[in-house]
Specification:
The chain is an all-alpha fold and 124 residues long. The protein has one domain. The protein has four helices and no strands. α2 (30-47) runs antiparallel to α3 (52-74) and α3 (52-74) packs antiparallel against α4 (97-123). The protein is elongated, with a radius of gyration of 17 Å.
Length: 124
């Protein structure tokens, strides 16, 4: 087995591990989560998974939310009191695609694992 085949077979498990580790600290692990979803999308397109559209949406929404998180943080963050530094709490709405994308990604990964398990049971 060559290196390319090893990488192809490792995409899905590495994507799952990356998302799980990133979820332990969603703020600091946000880049790890987006990278994990990118691996899951690549694996979905490689295998022709039925969940690849859902995983693509998860990657897109998560990436947009993480960029919003970084931009909001760079410009002072969100203030939770009436006065002080930061923006109004309404600005936190630009982060909403991140958890929505994460949830879609978890659903897409679970659907992919379920379909793979069914294929393995029917094949063997």
């Amino acid at each position: 087995m060559n290196v390319r085949e090893i990488i192809r077979r490792a995409l899905f498990p590495l994507g799952i591990v990356s998302v799980v580790l990133g979820t332990l600290d969603p703020l600091e692990g946000s880049v790890l989560i987006v990278a994990g979803f990118a691996m899951l999308v690549a694996d979905g397109y490689r295998t022709g998974s039925g969940s690849r559209t859902l995983l693509t949406w998860a990657l897109s929404l998560s990436a947009v939310g993480v960029v919003g998180l970084f931009v909001l943080s760079a410009f002072g963050g969100v203030r939770m009191t009436g006065t002080g530094p930061g923006h109004s709490p309404w600005w936190a709405l630009i982060i909403v695609p991140y958890p929505v994308g994460w949830l879609l990604g978890v659903i897409g990964a679970a659907r992919t694992m379920h379909s793979r398990r069914q294929q393995a049971q029917t094949a063997g």
